[in-house]
Write a structure and sequence with these properties.
The chain is mainly β. It has 2 domains: 64 residues, no CATH class; 379 residues, Methylamine Dehydrogenase, Chain H. The chain is built from 4 helices and 30 strands. Helix 2 packs antiparallel against helix 3. The protein is elongated and about 105 Å long. Keywords: Repeat, WD repeat. InterPro entries: CUL4-DDB1_E3_ligase_receptor, WD40/YVTN_repeat-like_dom_sf, WD40_repeat_dom_sf.
């Protein structure tokens, strides 16, 4: 049966009192009575007017045809910018953010630009993904770019990228002629976990995650001579190793310090965060446990591989970064589901933190106010440091006061710390490897998925890619995306390549 009461001629149904009243003349009914004849006629007239207005609105809506340009992010964004249409809250209408237009314009033109091989293995087809790599680009001031990669668990290999390869890289460098010196470097660093470059001092930073030895930071200066000068590299180059901790300490990643800082870098380890000063002296940035004397068992991890540390201090850090335009503020994330923040100017290092939805694998400061965090359980978010509160305060809507300002709902990474990820604020893009062995692009403005060109959109690997990097080489106007696919570094850029350069 319907809950709507029946209409009985001459009677009025009162929804509050749940009963019928006989319609009375206005002269005899009380002044506020809803069942007076004038009140009933007025409500009937209002109902008819509202119904007619709804019908006219529906007919008008059927005559409105949206332009096909609204389906294209670049075309609609440029058109809205020229016509000065105000941005509305409704998705897909109005003026798009300039960052979204730039990201979509770059992504849709992405094409494969070849691949780099280091020439160190004959079995390249079945080679597992490189754990990490780095390309020294135009920030070094050299005319030639250098690609470094950890091909196996013992050595780091480097090779030149010739200036003529700025647009399209060769699939495999030619082998040196008989009797000539090799054109690649080898540096011993077992279980290389990260490769970074400190431009102010021209030094490469390698971290080692070899178990049962202790974390190590390996330093060396890359040769920045122009490859066209005819000079060749030596097979091995001088390097220095700095021990970071005692046995069972594993170094996960280093972060080069900005030029204004008196630090060389900071290193995230399984035992906390360590800073390396410009004179190569180390210092722990997290509170250390008290000296427990000669009890060697105190230095051993628990059966689950963890050390006994206070809960409110960072203990196993996978990623860290300095705040943009402020080298005194450091962000860090790791095993604990918290984003850690510290001001290095304080006499004693103290850490504050906010809760995140999962353990954190990647942290990056994208502007002076915002930091992006990506981790497990498909959690990638942007936080604004101007509104962060380290307590558990709630706002008027009952949400945590430090809720993210942007979430990436289509990011997919359930349980991997060693998965490719990089941010390019210049292009307003985030590149991330996914659980399904693809690589996706996301907008830093909207958090939405940005559709890429056919080559990148159709990319599929056997396993999730472990390393990605945006980099700009000398002579290039915009960054390109590099990814480690097996033993090759594949390059994707927005400038179209000629047919003769493609594979």
């Amino acid at each position: 049966m319907s809950d709507t009461p029946r209409e009985i001629p001459g009677f009025y149904w009162d929804p509050e009192k749940k009963r019928y009243f006989k319609v009375e003349k206005s002269q005899t009914a009380p002044p506020t009575a809803q069942w007076s004849s004038s009140s009933v006629k007025r409500r009937e007239h209002e109902s008819q007017v509202a119904e007619q207005a709804a019908k006219r609105q529906q007919l008008t809506k059927n005559h409105v045809k949206r332009s096909v340009l609204t389906r294209d992010a670049v075309a609609s964004g440029l058109l809205a910018r020229e016509t000065e249409i105000d941005r509305t809250a409704e998705a897909g209408r109005g003026k798009r953010e300039n960052g979204d237009v730039l990201a979509a314009a770059w992504a849709r033109e992405v094409t494969a630009k070849g691949k780099i091989s280091f020439g160190m293995s004959w079995e390249l087809s079945g080679h597992p993904h490189m754990s990490c790599f780095y390309i020294v680009g135009k920030e070094s001031g050299s005319k030639s770019a250098i690609a470094y990669s950890a091909l196996d668990s013992q050595f780091m290999v480097g090779t030149y990228i010739e200036p003529t390869e700025a647009a399209v890289v060769l699939s495999r460098p030619q082998r040196p002629a008989a009797g000539s010196l090799p054109t690649y470097n080898i540096v011993h660093c077992s279980h290389t976990s990260s490769i970074k470059y400190h431009a102010p001092s021209n030094r490469m930073l390698l971290t080692s995650s070899e178990p049962n030895v202790g974390g190590t930071l390996v330093l060396f200066r890359p040769p920045l001579d122009d490859v066209s000068s005819g000079r060749n590299w030596s097979l091995d180059i001088d390097h220095m190793a700095i021990p970071l901790g005692k046995k069972w300490c594993v170094a996960h990643q280093s972060t080069p310090a900005p030029a204004a800082s008196n630090l060389l870098c900071v290193v995230g380890t399984s035992d906390g965060i360590m800073s390396i000063h410009s004179d190569e002296t180390p210092r722990w940035l997290n509170p250390r446990p008290p000296n427990l004397g000669l009890d060697a068992r105190a230095e051993r991890p628990t059966p689950r591989g963890r050390f006994n540390r206070p809960r409110k201090t960072p203990f196993e850090i996978f990623s860290q970064d300095f705040q943009v335009d402020n080298h005194n503020v450091l962000f860090a994330g790791g095993r604990q589901p918290r984003l850690w923040i510290s001001d290095l100017r304080a006499p004693a290092v103290e850490w504050s933190s906010i809760k995140h939805g999962s353990s954190i694998a990647h942290v990056r400061s994208i502007n002076p106010y915002q930091v992006i965090v990506a981790g497990l359980r498909d959690c990638m978010s942007v936080y604004d440091t101007r509104f962060l509160q380290t307590g558990e305060q709630k706002d008027a809507a009952g949400r945590n006061a430090s809720s993210p300002v942007l979430d990436f709902s289509e990011y997919r990474n359930q349980a991997r710390f060693d998965i490719g990820w990089d941010v390019c604020p210049e292009l307003n893009l985030v590149a991330s490897a996914q659980d399904d062995s693809t690589v996706k692009l996301f907008s830093l403005s909207s958090g939405g998925l940005v559709r890429a060109g056919t080559d990148l959109e159709g990319f599929r690997a056997k396993n999730p890619v472990k390393a990605l990097m945006f980099q700009t080489l000398r002579g290039e106007r915009l960054p390109n995306l590099y990814m480690a696919d097996g033993a090759y570094l594949k390059k994707f850029g927005c400038a179209p390549a000629s047919d003769g350069d493609q594979e």
